[in-house]
Amino acid sequence: MGLSERISNFVKLNVAKRKLKSRDIDSSKGNPLEMWGLLKIKKEIAANEELSYLGKDYGLKRDDIKEYKLYKFKQLLDYVSKNSPYYQELFEKEGIKSTNIKSMSDISKVPLTTHEQLIQNPYHFLCVSRREIAREFTTSGTTTTETADLKKRISYTQDELLDIVDSVISGLKMAGMDSEKDMLQIMYPTLTATWDPGLVLSKACDLAGFKSVINDSSDINDQINTMVNSGTTFIIGKSSFIYDLSKSASNLDKLRSLGIKNIICSSEPLTEEMKEVIEDAWGCTAVRQWGMTELGLANAIECTEQNGMHVNNPDFLVEVVDPDTGQVLPEGSEGELVFTTLNRRCMPLVRYRTKDLGVLLDEPCDCGTTLDQRIKNVRRMEN
Ligand SMILES: [Zn+2]
What we know:
Blueprint lengths: L2 H17 L12 H15 L15 H22 L1 H10 L20 H6 L14 E6 L10 E6 L1 H17 L8 E5 L9 H12 L2 E4 L5 H11 L3 E5 H10 L3 H5 L5 E5 L5 H11 L2 E6 L9 E3 L6 E3 L4 E6 L12 E8 L10 E10 L12 E7 L3
Parallel strand pairs: 3-4, 3-5, 5-6, 6-7
Antiparallel strand pairs: 1-2, 7-8, 8-9, 9-13, 10-11, 11-12, 12-13
Helix pairs in contact: 2-6, 3-4, 6-7, 9-11
The chain binds zinc ion.
The site of zinc ion has 6 residues, from loops.
């Protein structure tokens, strides 16, 4: 790398650091993911006359958050009607207007978006010009025969990528990571895909001032050596990978003596049985993390109460629908998770069917957070 390139990277890194809200969050003052979300919402309320009544006298309450999300949803409808060729055409045909959305229950009038529509119209969802795209990710399509070889293309602007990094840092802080004391060992098997979650995480750690080390070896002794040499205290990786690794350990006393504080299991559902095996092997908690490439990957993570994953508020509006009829189901029932991206500008998705089943919880979590919406018992839908 030449000197001028190094200087420009240094400048970019420092600009990026300054934009991160999560860096200034003090974990001892509450739930870091919630504090990050509230900072974002408050900033928007302060800049927006129409929202100024929210939380004016008593601070933000759960009802204010719902009002805020409804407002954001309507704003998103206007935005995609103007900027996304796909939604423009669809909403014109179906007569969908933001002015027809008066309450949360009206949201079900807006058509759902499916994986197939995303695959068939790769660039019609784009709301910005191609040169504003910082990264395009492709992700495997579907198993139906006619679209088997097609992939989904998901694009992000630079600011959106930074926002994802910001949410990752807040999530790691919520899992208990401390920039001074802790070391994160990142365990994702090396992928041939166009992007690598291990690298995204390691970049996030650099920006947050967290220490991290990557090891993708499926050999438990190799992983242990890295832990001893690096002073690892946190582990993150693909659920099945960590599970297989944990099962392959012959000396559990050795694992438990390493002093691992928390293990974050991501990318795949973690069953209760898998969780027990992992927690028993390492002698610490294993928490779940959930995300999809289409939604920006880091979308929800469990707090220490381990009663459902906290969704990254205020970025998403979550619904649960009947997978067969698409009808919205009441809170607490199992159904297909449907996500609306409330803050994306590059490629927002309205009522996106995730093909994952889960339960949506709306009651407050025992960790004391104000923000609503947690998801629980998430698993893949059978085809
Ligand atoms: Zn909680």
